[in-house]
Amino acid sequence: MTSQIYSQKKFVPTPPEKGSFPLDHEGLCKKQFLLYASCLRKNAQDTSQCRQDARNYLACRMDNNLMEKTEWSKLGFHDQSTKSDKKAPEVQKQ
């Protein structure tokens, strides 16, 4: 009522662009998140240096139904969309 008295505009919340997604209460993707956060700290918040960690974190969230499965190109991974999906991780020989 007081907001109408002082001619303030009413706040109308808008939903997120991609929709909401559940929080990771069980910690299913905590390891991937910590690796990504650690990479960001090491690289002074330069996200371009941590793209693979970000991709691993998002893949974990999609695999555990914590977010909608989306094409990598729609998530900003245009350069890795086809290469990484088919490529198996390399094992170093000693």
Structure description:
The chain has 94 residues and is mostly helical. It has a domain at 29-68. 36% of the residues lie in helices and 0% in strands. It has four helices and no strands. It has helices at residues 2-5, 30-42, 51-63, 83-86. α2 (30-42) packs antiparallel against α3. The longest helix has 13 residues, at 30-42. 7% of the residues are buried. The model is unreliable at 81-94 (pLDDT under 50).
| Helix vs. strand class | mainly alpha
Largest sheet: none
How much strand?
under 5%
Mean pLDDT: 80
Q: How many strands in all?
A: 0
CA-to-CA gap between the ends? Answer: 73 Å
Element order, helices and strands? Answer: HHHH
Descriptive terms for the model:
94 residues; mainly alpha; 36% helix; disordered C terminus
What is shown here, in short?
Belongs to the COX19 family. This protein is mainly alpha-helical. Helices cover 36% and strands 0% of the residues.
Write the topology of this structure.
Blueprint: H1 2-5, H2 30-42, H3 51-63, H4 83-86
Main location: cytoplasm
GO cellular component, one term: mitochondrial intermembrane space
Family: Belongs to the COX19 family.
